[in-house]
């Protein structure tokens, strides 16, 4: 953790031209590692931040914690005009490395990796010209009230008393349910009325035909909303092959759309909350992001949660970062891209450091 803080956060301040004393809000998220004093307090002490800095430490929020932190930072900035927030996503899987023989708990050892990212956000209009991306929408859905969803991914003991992360067979179903709830709220915010009307009319006609018995339901011809009418790029959490393929099928995406998530999973593994920024790094390194493009970020987490947000590209996206040629998953890597957004369009400055304990799949 100290190596991550020293390398990434210090580099982020250097590239942005801001100092630790400029930070008004600090939000840190880490799922599996929660020491006391908290990591937020450790960062405040390590960088000598102001005594009135508002520090928050989130733990146990799973892979979707990055957008939970983003939501918290945005809400904090709403109350403090012309302020700066530092958002840190990191992870350490060592405390919960599973040593037993339960198959549902061994999967985590193969899938999860250590990684981290740091981002600066601001609502200061004077920094708006330096923004690379602007936040347009953020939607959160939580299905924890459902027993099946709540138990689909959880920390527990096996029959021998060994602690680990259990991933149940109900996880894909829980993810699909949470995704449906999230997109139901997101779609009206990003799609034109014509696309929503097209979907509603086709769905109504299909139901009328089926109800009268004039046609049988055909597999593979489901009426889906065309989200490509509202966004150009899809930044999907690389939670696993089943998760990526499930989102691909649900949204009607093609191989090009999910390539960034697939390659991130292949090269780096699932780094929990920070994984989403590695997917964005791949898009940037490949030159996919152009001014005016909209990027849909979609992530899942234990609980079960599905969070999404939409960014608009405002500046030059040319940082090769962690996806630059020659970078290896077996070496320590940093990815940095200086971003400072404005609110209503919060953007971010991001710097990323990866410390893989084993080779990515």
Please write out the topology.
Layout: H1 2-16, E1 25-30, H2 39-47, E2 54-59, H3 65-79, E3 84-90, H4 103-111, E4 116-122, E5 133-142, H5 147-150, E6 153-157, E7 163-167, H6 171-190, H7 193-211, E8 233-236, H8 241-251, H9 255-268, H10 275-285, E9 294-301, E10 305-313, E11 333-337, E12 349-354
Parallel strand pairs: 1-2, 1-3, 8-9
Antiparallel strand pairs: 3-4, 4-12, 5-10, 6-7, 9-10, 11-12
Structure report:
The protein is α/β, with parallel strands linked by helices and 361 residues long. It has helices at residues 2-16, 39-47, 65-79, 103-111, 147-150, 171-190, 193-211, 241-251, 255-268, 275-285, and strands at 25-30, 54-59, 84-90, 116-122, 133-142, 153-157, 163-167, 233-236, 294-301, 305-313, 333-337, 349-354. The strands form 3 sheets. Strands 2-1-3-4-12-11 form a 6-stranded mixed sheet, sandwiched between helices. Strands 5-10-9-8 form a 4-stranded mixed sheet. A two-stranded antiparallel sheet has the order 6-7. Strand 9 (294-301) and strand 10 form a beta hairpin. Helix 6 crosses helix 8 (241-251), helix 8 packs antiparallel against helix 9 (255-268) and helix 9 (255-268) crosses helix 10. The longest helix is centred in the middle third of the chain and has 20 residues, at 171-190. The chain is globular. 47% of the residues are buried.
Relevant terms:
globular, alpha/beta, 361 residues, four-stranded mixed beta sheet, disordered C terminus, six-stranded mixed beta sheet
